[in-house]
């Protein structure tokens, strides 16, 4: 029987989580005081994802997935390494469909938290991309 091969994303997540856990509050504040990192849609990413992205690329300003950059008329340059951040995975339960929790406060939040988990996803900074030639951008 073969030994199960470890997922490199899990190893990277553990390493980055350990680095963040070992940071002082002042160190975290210094990382978060820099210009916020935005998504390709223009929304700021969460504080934890700010730390994750900045630790992997100190000059990161705007991140998006591979397909998101293509849709925006850009392509990731060859040999660029992805940055990994957390993203929700799984369906979120609507509050209306959550079981009644009149007698037990907190049950609705527990049910909500169980339905969503977070996974490491690869993203690329805008500096890791280049414009698609006009004819390729039109085809995308």
Describe the SSE topology.
Layout lengths: L7 H14 L3 H8 L5 E2 L7 H10 L5 E3 L1 H6 L2 E3 L6 E7 L17 H9 L1 E9 L3 E3 L2 H6 L1
Parallel strand pairs: 1-2
Antiparallel strand pairs: 2-5, 3-6, 4-5
- How many β-strands, per DSSP? 6
Average pLDDT over all residues: 81
Query: Hey, roughly how much beta strand do the residues contain?
Result: 15-25%
**Total domains, how many?**
1
Would you tell me the structural class of the helices and strands? alpha+beta
- Give me the strand/helix succession: HHEHEHEEHEEH
Poorly predicted runs = 96-103
Main beta-sheet annotation = 4 strands, mixed
Our count of helices gives: 6
**Shape category:** globular
The helical percent reads: 25-40%
Cross-sheet strand order for the largest sheet: 1-2-5-4
What is the radius of gyration computed over CA atoms, rounded to a whole number of angstroms?
19 Å
Q: Termini, distance in Å? A: 45 Å
Question: Describe it for me?
Answer:
With about 140 residues, the protein is an alpha+beta fold. It has one domain (about 10-90, about 120-140). The chain has helices at about 10-20, 25-30, 45-55, 65-70, 105-115, 135-140, and strands at about 40, 60-65, 75, 85-90, 115-125, 130. Strand 1 (about 40), helix 3 and strand 2 form a beta-alpha-beta unit. The longest helix is centred in the N-terminal third of the chain and has 14 residues, at about 10-20. It is globular. The chain starts with 7 loop residues before the first helix and ends with a helix.
């Amino acid at each position: 029987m073969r030994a199960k091969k470890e997922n490199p994303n899990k190893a990277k997540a553990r390493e980055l989580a350990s680095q963040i856990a070992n940071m002082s509050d002042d160190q975290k504040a210094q990382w978060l005081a820099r210009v916020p990192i935005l998504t390709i849609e223009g929304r700021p990413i969460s504080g934890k994802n700010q730390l994750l992205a900045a630790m992997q690329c100190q000059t990161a300003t705007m991140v998006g997935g591979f397909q998101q950059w293509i849709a925006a008329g850009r392509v990731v340059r060859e040999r660029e390494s992805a940055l990994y951040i957390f993203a929700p995975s799984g369906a979120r339960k609507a509050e209306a469909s959550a079981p009644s929790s009149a007698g037990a406060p907190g049950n609705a939040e527990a049910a909500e938290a169980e339905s969503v988990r977070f996974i490491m996803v690869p993203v690329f900074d805008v500096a890791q991309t280049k414009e698609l030639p006009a004819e390729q951008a039109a085809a995308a």
